[in-house]
Design a protein that fits this description.
This protein is an alpha+beta fold and 82 residues long. It is built from three helices and four strands, in the order E-H-H-E-E-H-E. It has one domain: Alpha-Beta Plaits (2-Layer Sandwich), CATH 3.30.70. The strands form two sheets. A two-stranded antiparallel ribbon has the order 1-4. Strands 2-3 form a two-stranded antiparallel sheet.
Amino acid sequence: MAKENKKIEQSDICIGCGICDSVCPINTKLAKKDDFDPDTAKLAIRVCNGSAIIDEDTCIACGSCVRSCPVESLSIVVIAAA
């Protein structure tokens, strides 16, 4: 299934543990760069104020975060064609 047909959604039960942030392949790739700055990088998912925030433009909806979430607050949602 192509990325344009799905997205990651988060429920309000997120505990802000940061596991999703650490397993995200986009975030991992960016973190390996010499000029990486976590405050300015365009991360796919980050924890802010105790909750995961997903950047839908950067996220590739691979599901790594969904599989790793200990409280199952993340899910893959299929987007219906218009």
